[in-house]
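Figure 2 data, in text form.
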Amino acid sequence: MRGPHNIFLLVRTGATLERNGAMADIMQALEVPRAARVALRALAWPFKWLGYGGDESLPPVARALTAMGPAYIKFGQILSTRPDVVGDDLTLQLRLLQDKLPPFPIETARATVAYELGRPSDEVFSEFSEPVAAASIAQVHRARLVDGDRDVAVKVLRPGIERAFRRDIDTFYFAAGLVAKFLPGSRRLRPVEVIEHFESTVLGELDLRLESASASEFADNTRDDDGFRLPQVLWNHSSRRVMTMTWADGINAGDVEALRAAGHDMTGLSQRVIQLFLSHALRDGYFHADMHHGNLKIAPNGDIIAYDFGIMGHIDEYTRRVYAEILYGFIKRDYQRVAEVHFEAGYVPADRDVDEFARALRAVGEPIFGMDASRISMGKLLAYLFEVTERFGMETRTELILLQRTMVVVEGVARTLDPRMNIWDAAKPVVERYIAESIGPRAVARDLAKTARVLARFGPRLPALAEEALIRLSREESPPPTPRRWHALVWAAAGGAIGAAAVALLALL
C-alpha cells in the first residue's frame, strides 16, 4: 500500500512545486535533461489544483516547501547547508525558508507536558503562557516553576509530528530512488545519501533529550568563554517531547536599533560573534550550526546568549588542525603552504601538481584580499576553496560544508551589528592562538601523552601479542628471513617495548 500512497504524495508535491513556480528551479538544480523537464512539467500541470498555495512574499522554492509543511521545511533547511548538492542559486532561496507555522492550542501543550513529566502541568508550572514562538517541529512557552521563583522556556513537540515525519521521509526515499534510477546524471549528487543525512538529523531533533544533551555539552565546552552564555537545561523537567531551560532575557541580535538604544558596543559585539564561533569550531570541534539572528539574544550586560540546539556541527581534531593551518595560510597569504597542507592531509590526490594547486589557491585568495575590509568574507573564501579542491579531486566533506554554511550565517549576523567589521582582524587572533596551542611543542607533548595512554591500555597484552607475532613469523618462513620479515619482527618487538615504556612513563607521571 505504500507504493500508491507515495505516488499520490509525489503527485501532490509536484503539483505544489508547479503551482508555486518552483518546478523549473528544482529541475535545474538536479540537472534534469531538457526532454525530461518538459515531460515532468506537462504531467504536473493538470494536477496544479491538488497543490498547496504558499506565501507570495517568499521565493518560489521556499514558498512551495513552506506550504507543504514541517518535513519539507526541515528538508529545505538541511539542503541549504549543501550547496554542493543543490547549487548556489537554490541555496540562496532555501536560506529564506521561514521555519514558522501556526501554533497549536495551549491545552494540547499542557496535556503533552503532563503526559511526559508524569503529573499535571500546574503541579510543575505555576504559570504557563501562550506560545511565544512556533516552528515546524515544536513551539515554546514561557512558564514559571512551582518549586522556585524562576522563569523558564518550555519547548514542546508538535502533536503527531513524529508520525508525519516518518510518512514524509518514506516518500523522500521513494522519490530519491526514482531520481537515482531514471536520472543517471543526478547520481553524483547521491540522492539516497542526502535523504539518509536528512533522516538522521531530523530524528535527532524529534527527541528533545538529544537536544538537551547537545545544549549540556555545548555549555560545558563554553562555560569559561567571556561574554557568552547559554540557558541551563533543567533535566528534571525535560523528556523526549518536552525540554525545559532557564529563561534568557535579552534583545534579539537582529534588532539593531534596540541594541544601539540600549548602549551596546556594536563593533565589539560584531567581533565577538565571529571569534566565539571560530573558537567553538576550532578549539572544541563542536559548534552551533544554526547561529542566525533568531537564535541569539544580547543580554543587558552585553553577553551573547545562544539557544535552540537542534542542529550542531562536529569536526574531529585532526580536521580542525588541518583547516586551522589552511585558514592561517590564507591569512598570511602563503598559498604554497596551503597547497602543501592539502597534499599532506591526503585531501588532494598525490598525483596532482602541488605548484599548480598553489596557483589555483592564489586565484582564490588574492581577489578576496584585494577587497575593501568590509566586503571580505571567510564564508566565500571557504566556498571558493571547496570549488578549487573539488576540481583537483577532493571529495565533498559534509561537516566542512556545514562549517562553511554556518560561517556565512555568522558573518551575516556580525555585519548586521557592524557593516564595516573586518573579518580577518576578528579571526586572526583566534586562528593564531589555536595554531600555537594545537601544532606547537606543547601540542606534540600532549599527543605523545595520549599515545602513551592508549598503549598503556594495551600494555598487558603487548608482550603476548609480540610473542605470537614472532612465533607465527618464524614458523611461516625458514631462516634466513627476508628483509620484509625482518622489518615485521623488529616492529613486533618494538611494539612490546613501546607498550612497556608507556606503562612505565604513566606510572611516573
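Caption note: The chain has four domains: 2-97+163-203, 102-157+207-247, 248-439, 442-508.
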